[in-house]
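2024-03-11 09:14:02 INFO worker-7 job=invfold-0412 stage=load source=structure_tokens
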């Protein structure tokens, strides 16, 4: 898969902007560690992000000691049937187990791939040591489902590293 984009599947008619937006939002589910939200307040169409501020997920992210996360800002270009996407990196500050996001000092914008993983062990109810959590946060876990929906909908996913989104 190319780093900066994924081409639509051959002979797939392009969906309308409303239809692809609906399909992208359908990626949201309680079991996923990410969500896709409306992006109008940020000047974009959609934002994909880890559920780091979701109460049911931030304990997992806290145990992972995540220090950086990223969001994918997306604009839908109906004229080109293209989802233009740009990654923005944020640093995470933990206070009493609750996360807050700050734009990373490096102010990274562009395309990135990162993987965070780990496992924790503790004594279980039977007093035997055991695994209590296991996690892996890979940026491709966010990008690949978005790219797959774009390709199967006749749209191009275009990662934007420089310039205007």
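2024-03-11 09:14:09 INFO worker-7 stage=emit residues=165
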């Amino acid at each position: 898969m190319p780093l900066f984009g994924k081409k639509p599947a051959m002979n797939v008619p392009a969906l309308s902007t409303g239809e692809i937006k609906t399909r992208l939002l359908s990626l949201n589910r309680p079991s996923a560690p990410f969500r896709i939200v409306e992006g109008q307040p940020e000047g974009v169409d959609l934002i994909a992000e880890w559920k780091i501020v979701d109460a049911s997920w931030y304990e997992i992210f806290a145990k992972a000691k995540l220090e950086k996360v990223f969001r994918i800002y997306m604009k839908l270009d109906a004229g080109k049937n293209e989802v233009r996407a740009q990654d923005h990196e944020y640093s995470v500050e933990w206070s009493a187990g609750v996360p807050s996001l700050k734009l990373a000092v490096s102010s990274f914008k562009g395309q990135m791939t990162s993987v965070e993983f780990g496992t924790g062990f503790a004594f279980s109810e039977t007093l035997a040591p055991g695994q209590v959590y296991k996690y892996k946060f890979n940026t491709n876990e966010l990008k690949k489902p978005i790219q797959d929906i774009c390709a199967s909908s006749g749209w191009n996913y275009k990662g934007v590293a420089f310039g205007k989104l």
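2024-03-11 09:14:09 INFO worker-7 stage=report msg="Strands lie at 5-6, 34-38, 46-50, 68-77, 82-95, 98-103, 109-110, 115-123, 129-138, 156-159."
2024-03-11 09:14:10 INFO worker-7 job finished
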